[in-house]
Design goal:
Largest sheet: 8 strands, mixed
Number of helices: 16
CATH topology of the largest domain: Heat Shock Protein 90
Number of strands: 16
Number of domains: 4
Oligomer: single chain
Shape: globular
Radius of gyration: 30 Å
Bound molecules: adenosine-5'-diphosphate, magnesium ion
CATH class of the largest domain: Alpha Beta
CATH architecture of the largest domain: 2-Layer Sandwich
Distance between the termini: 106 Å
Helix content: 25-40%
Length: 545
């Protein structure tokens, strides 16, 4: 029996693993799969441009082919990929420039482009086509397949041409995907990408041929992300084992000092005293789970300098405002500015929040009505799926919206923007679509959204008051003509025409006096909707009659 089992024992390559577990890469459901593909290509373009300091120009086309397949073409003006790396970058899983870097980027694991290629191959059997140039006079194009057994790229139709081309053009055909323009669609995905990346210009061409340009709202290139060392308090046992095994240091002590931030020789000494049974002279690649767990627990008992905060790259309040205006043209919007915080004691993060009201803000529902919309982002990447159990949804839905003059969040034209920024986003699953609802994170999101809402409340409150004034003014105006005729009779003097003119003037004066600014100020001083007090002054004459 054992022999028989042994004869069936096989080692699987990582590519084979993901081929069998493609839902882990976001390939489940026809609509979601298509959005995932667009996401993988578009985030790569944005990452590459950001790192190279280029203002991104991205074109995404989706075509419905006669054979039922869907063809995706994405082109960017980024730095391109050098010929000798292109095959590996696009066709080998767990290969890429971002692997093992503690840095705020969209991609991380090197399974985006290659995962997409894998999906093309297993659903249509067709290769990925690409052309790339680095702007140095040569462009390289090829057809790419993946050898699942070995997780190696196979290139065909290779061609190198003299060309000043710079960027990447990539095209692939897929089945088991469906195009639809709903709230989980590539359209919505790109719209939100544009929102969190106001420096990018994105052109989207739908299967119908309809072209939508999300224009660049700002020429400011985001600051380049920087790589930082992980803080000892921010890592898990499995991180520690992984880092240790990848390390080229000879001893645990030097591995600690050189891998982590705030880890001095002094700290190594403290650790030795706290945990004498684990030798600091051990080669890091021999670190076992048990010791790693002890070490992580010991880290928690030492006092550390807090982590470096300057690796965080938010969109920035002015940029968020520009993007919101560009895309929703709202009646009103407010952006909160918050300072970086730390979660799990060692991972810096920051929450950017904004609200937009009116205009095109809010979610268009199937029945044509508009309701509140929550726009979730992690490091500027839109999160469209798995809303349940996401810290952002928990925080926003848990708020008492009536405090902000939003009577029913589901029925008002309001969009809430939240971008979670960190070198380490605690996603709830491999699909990377929801942020773990850790207490520190939910709380900070709540505070950020409340900050933004405070301004909105002032505005909405002013609006409510103004609407009330308008109604009153109208009601009073109805009596003016009659009153102007009756007054001379009662008083025995005056001319109706003149009195009417004066009355109209008085009413106009009274109701134009309280400007929106004053209303806002009033609202800021009090809370909730105040009852209007009976007024004295010019208006009284009209009431007195
Ligand atoms: N549009 C692009 N421009 C330049 N380089 C790219 C582009 N797309 C992918 N790459 C390179 O290919 C690598 C692998 O991409 P991918 O499989 O999506 O993994 P990840 O984004 O997690 O690194 C990237 O790290 C990058 O070096
Ligand atoms: Mg990627």
């Amino acid at each position: 029996m054992a022999d028989e089992m042994a004869s069936q024992f096989r080692e699987h390559s990582i590519a084979e693993f993901f081929k069998k577990n493609r839902q882990m890469l976001g390939f489940s459901g026809k609509i979601r799969s298509l959005t995932t593909l667009v996401h993988e290509y578009a985030t790569n373009s944005l990452d590459a441009c950001e790192e190279a300091g280029i203002l991104p120009d991205i074109e995404v086309q989706i075509e419905q082919l006669d054979n039922g397949h869907i063809r995706i073409t994405v082109e960017d003006n980024g730095p391109g990929i050098p010929k000798k790396l292109a095959g590996k970058a696009l066709g080998q899983m767990l290969a890429g420039t971002k692997f093992h870097r503690y840095m705020q980027q969209r991609g991380q694991q090197g399974i985006g482009a290659s995962g997409a290629g894998m999906f093309a191959q297993i659903t249509t059997g067709r290769p990925v086509k690409f052309r790339t140039g680095t702007g140095d006079g040569k462009a390289f194009s090829a057809d790419l397949k993946i050898d699942f057994k070995t997780n190696k790229p196979l290139l065909e139709e290779e061609e190198e041409k003299d060309s000043a081309y710079r960027g990447l053009w990539i095209q692939a055909e897929f089945a088991e995907v469906k195009y639809d323009k709903g709230e989980y669609s590539p359209f919505e995905y790109l719209k939100r990408t544009a929102l969190a990346n106001p420096h990018a210009q994105i052109l989207f061409i739908e299967p119908t041929g309809e072209r939508t340009l999300f224009p660049r709202a700002s020429d400011l290139i985001p600051e380049k992300p920087v790589e930082i060392q992980p803080h000892p308090l921010g890592i898990t046992t499995s991180d520690l084992v992984e880092f240790a095994h990848a390390s080229k240091e000879r001893k645990l002590s030097s591995f600690f000092v050189n891998t982590f931030s705030r880890f001095s020789q002094g700290k190594v000494q403290e650790l030795k005293e706290a945990l004498p049974e684990v030798s600091m002279d051990m080669p890091p690649d021999e670190l076992q789970w048990e010791d790693a767990e002890k070490l992580v627990n010991a880290f928690k008992k030492l006092r550390w300098i807090s982590p470096e905060m300057d690796a965080l790259r938010p969109v920035g309040p002015e940029q968020v405002a520009k993007a919101l205006k560009n895309i929703y043209n709202p009646e009103f919007m407010a952006v909160a500015e918050r300072k970086p915080k730390v979660f799990r004691g060692g991972i810096p993060f920051m929450v950017e929040a904004a609200v937009a009201y009116g205009g095109n803000a809010g979610r268009r529902k199937a029945d044509g009505s508009v309701g509140g919309d929550i726009l979730r982002f992690a490091n500027r990447v839109p999160l469209l799926f798995d809303a349940g159990g996401c810290a952002i949804i928990d925080a926003v839905k848990g708020m008492d919206w009536r405090r902000y003059d939003i009577r029913d969040f589901e029925k008002e034209p309001v969009s809430v923007f939240v971008n979670f920024v960190s070198v380490h986003v605690p996603y709830t699953g491999a699909g990377k679509q929801a942020i773990a609802d850790e207490e520190e994170i939910v709380e900070e999101i709540r505070l950020a959204v409340m900050d933004a809402c405070r301004d909105m409340q002032r505005y909405l409150h002013g609006k409510v008051r103004e609407a009330g004034r308008e109604a009153k003014k109208k009601a009073i105006l109805k009596y003016v003509t009659q009153l102007a005729q009756d007054l001379p009779l009662l008083a025995g003097k005056g001319k109706p025409k003149e009195i009417e003119k004066k009355l109209l003037q008085m009413i106009e004066n009274k109701y134009s006096q309280l400007t929106l600014d004053e209303a806002e100020e009033e609202a800021a001083n009090g809370n909730g909707v105040k009852e209007e007090k009976p007024e004295t002054g010019n208006g009284d004459e009209a009431k007195e009659e």
